Amino acid sequence: MSSFGSYKARQFNLSGLKGISDQTLEMHFKLYEGYVKETNNLTGRITEFISDRKVDQEEMPAYSELTRRLGFEYNGMILHEYYFDNLKSGGGIGDPEKTSQFVKATETSFGNYDIWKADFVGIGKMRGVGWAICYQNPANGRISNHWITLHETGNVAGFIPILVMDVWEHAYLLDYKPAERPKYIEAFFSNIAWGTVEERLERNIGVRSARV
Ligand SMILES: [Fe+2]
């Protein structure tokens, strides 16, 4: 049985963010590389298990554990790529342009941008380790915000990540105290690459039909 293929860690140039130090980013990129490595490692080990075209009963406990861990590592890899991609080197403009498709999407789904933001920021402040993610439902173009525990619990099947914010403590502990997560969230907003967010929406057919 052939391997499922392997992932290569991507390079990101995000120096000069506002309120998120280069030192934090360096550490964060290393953590991300760990997720890529572990995704490849687990995929390889699972491939070995199924190379004889069956999973024997005595193999089941180890196979199950590897497969559960794959959900954690795989989502950890992918979500970090979305997160780094929606940050802008040198910092951004704060809130998006009022004429943007994203602001229109918040009006359609939440009433207005400020209500959407209150929800997204509120989720970001939830206690626990995980992510705040704004997703789009490709079936109708509507957006909704979700809390993801760790990397793998709470993602909505088939929904498209539009804006992804890491709120694990490693994302901000070198720059802020543990209780200062709100300051990190403010810093995150001042660095959003709204152009990337816009592309994620525009790639999607659903939002076009929602505009009509
Ligand atoms: Fe992270």
Characterization of this structure:
The chain has helices at 22-49, 60-85, 101-110, 113-124, 181-189, 194-202, 205-211; strands at 130-136, 143-149, 160-166. With 212 residues, it is mainly alpha-helical. It has a three-stranded antiparallel beta sheet with strand order 2-1-3, sandwiched between helices. Helix 1 (22-49) packs antiparallel against helix 2 (60-85). The termini are far apart. Fe (ii) ion (FE2) is lined by residues 28, 31, 80, 166, 168, 170-171.
Describe the SSE topology.
Elements lengths: L21 H28 L10 H26 L15 H10 L2 H12 L5 E7 L6 E7 L10 E7 L14 H9 L4 H9 L2 H7 L1
Antiparallel strand pairs: 1-2, 1-3
Helix pairs in contact: 1-2
The structure holds fe (ii) ion.
Fe (ii) ion binds next to helix 1.
Task: Please give the order of strands in the largest beta sheet.
Answer: 2-1-3
Number of helices: 7
What proportion of the residues form beta strands (DSSP E)? 5-15%
Supply the helix-strand structural class. mainly alpha
Largest sheet: 3 strands, antiparallel
**Total DSSP E strands:** 3
Q: Which cofactors or ions or other ligands sit in this model?
A: fe (ii) ion
Order of helices and strands: HHHHEEEHHH
Oligomer: single chain
List segments where confidence is low: pLDDT < 50 over at least 5 consecutive residues: none
Work out the radius of gyration: 19 Å
Helix content: 40-55%
In angstroms, what separates the terminal alpha carbons?
48 Å
The average pLDDT value, as a whole number, equals 93
Shape: globular
